[in-house]
Amino acid sequence: MKGDEERMKGKVIVRLKSEVSDPQGMTIQQTVAKLGFGGVRKVRAGKFFEIEFDAPDADAARQLLNNLCDRVLANPIIENYSFEIEENP
Question: What angle do CA 86, 87, 88 make, to 5 degrees?
């Protein structure tokens, strides 16, 4: 760690926007039905990332994760993301 930065862990979830078709989710839903799991109405697939990093404070950590999601992890045109931050994991 540098100076007075804290170790952080970000847990990021990226999902397709609700208006975007999800072929992977549809395939999973069809497979679930074929396997006999009743009552499953809809499946939407997504991505999950755990990222460990150093940051001076929670605001800097949020800014880093927002930038990382906007530029690398998610396609903001078709995906939404959310994250949570753990300090000193």
Answer: 120
Predicted TM-score (pTM) of the model is: 0.85
The Cα 24–Cα 43 span in angstroms is: 9
| Element housing 87 (H / E) | strand 79-87
What is the Cα 36 distance to its own chain's centre?
Answer: 29
User: Which two three-digit tokens encode residue 1?
Assistant: 């760690």
Domain 6-87 part of CATH 1.10.260.40? no
Q: What is the pLDDT of residues 38-59, one digit of tens each?
A: 899 999 999 999 999 999 999 9
Question: Strand (E) positions, the chain?
Answer: 6-16, 46-55, 79-87
